[in-house]
Amino acid sequence: MPAEQFITLEHKKDFSGTGIRWEIQGEYVLLFRQNNYTFSGHICEDKGETLINVTIFDLNTQTGTLSNEQGFFSITLPEGKHKLRFSYIGYQDVVKEVDLTSNYNGVIYLKESNTSLKEVVVVADLNASLRTTQTGKVSLTSEQLNTEFSLLSSPDLVKTLQNIPGVASGTELLSGMYVHGGKNDENLFLLDGTPLYQINHLGGLFSAFNTDIIKNVDFYKSGFPARYGGRLSSVVDVRTKEGNMKEFHGTFSLGLLDGRVQFEGPIIKDKTSFNIAMRRSWADLFTAPAFFLLNRSNPDDKKNVRYPFTTSTGKSPTVF
User: Fold this and answer.
1) pTM of the predicted model, to two decimals?
2) Is 306 inside a domain boundary?
3) Which parts of the sequence belong to the TonB-dependent receptor plug domain (predicted)?
4) How far apart are CA 65 and CA 53, in angstroms?
């Protein structure tokens, strides 16, 4: 009996998803190990901002993965055709069919969904098993930071964290942070993974963080992962926005003691963007008249003290 007649459809299904491919040569059926290739890339929204924890699922092999904090994902699949589904809450699902014959790297864009959701009832279960061991973690978005009230100044990251249970501010109106009784210098502040050793301006009246460029913040006040070693009290992991890769956009705001401006846009559309945020205080506008009057009354000992602080933060990511 020829080999073509011996191999039935059921036999062919037996080999699907096993990583083994077969080939008929004469009267013999030869089995080969399929090569594995990596499908990787970044997942972004329409404006170019990366999306975290997007679900990537292969409908053929029933395997999947998640995008990381930089929106990057990587999944290793057998050679051949695959159908990948990208899903994220609040965005439309994207299904991409690929024929893997080599490693692939690209960018996947998701569009926001305007679908109205029905009411959801959440019921607690005291007997449910523990689903996570992560405790003491608070996550904040840019929208949450910019809606927080801060006396005398613009929205402030550190003063927002002072309102969390277990965190004390120390001196009123200043940006000190004492977590669970620890010292102010026992907190680790990270800006896109880079440690910051000085986070205050004007003796602590302002923090050095401009909320216009902040994308999200993870605040660990206890039980923080070992990769954040080096501090005793807490970890503040700040991630900044990548910048709009489609069009130019800017904002500005004026406060009682400072002013802010932020500008973003593409350098190479869909490839490279920039995001720049700057802030300046008006403190010197109040101190200059006072020292002018002081110098008039004491011309032999003139003083010229001006203390305007400025903060500039910039970022220019490139997607390969």
Assistant:
1) 0.65
2) no
3) 154-231
4) 9
- Residues 104, 145, single domain; the answer is no
Query: Residue 198 has which token pair?
Result: 């000085």
Residues 149 and 70 reside in one and the same domain:
no
Rounded to whole angstroms, how far apart are CA atoms 94 and 108?
A: 9
Q: Mind listing the pLDDT tens digit for each residue in 89-130?
A: 889 999 999 888 889 888 899 988 877 777 888 887 766 665
| Number of Cβ within a 10 Å radius of residue 77 | 21
Structure tokens given for 268: 């190479």
Same domain, 42 and 71: yes
With respect to residue 130, please indicate whether it lies within any of the assigned structural domains.
Answer: no
Quick check: 189 and 218 in contact, CB under 8 A?
no
Beta bridge partners, 207, equal 200
CA 197 remoteness from chain centre: 21
Contact predicate 228/188, CB 8 Å: yes
CA–CA dist 60, 39 (Å, integer):
14
- Answer for the pair 43, 91: CB distance below 8 angstroms, yes or no: no
What whole-number distance in Å separates Cα of residue 181 and Cα of residue 77? Answer: 50
CB 314 within 8 A of CB 270: no
Residue range(s) defining the domain that contains residue 26: 3-33
Query: CB-based contacts of 192: which residues, under 8 Å, 6+ apart?
Result: 238, 239, 240, 315
Question: What six digits make up the tokens of 22?
Answer: 């077969």
Task: Give me the number of domains the chain comprises.
Answer: 3
Q: Is residue 315 part of a domain?
A: no
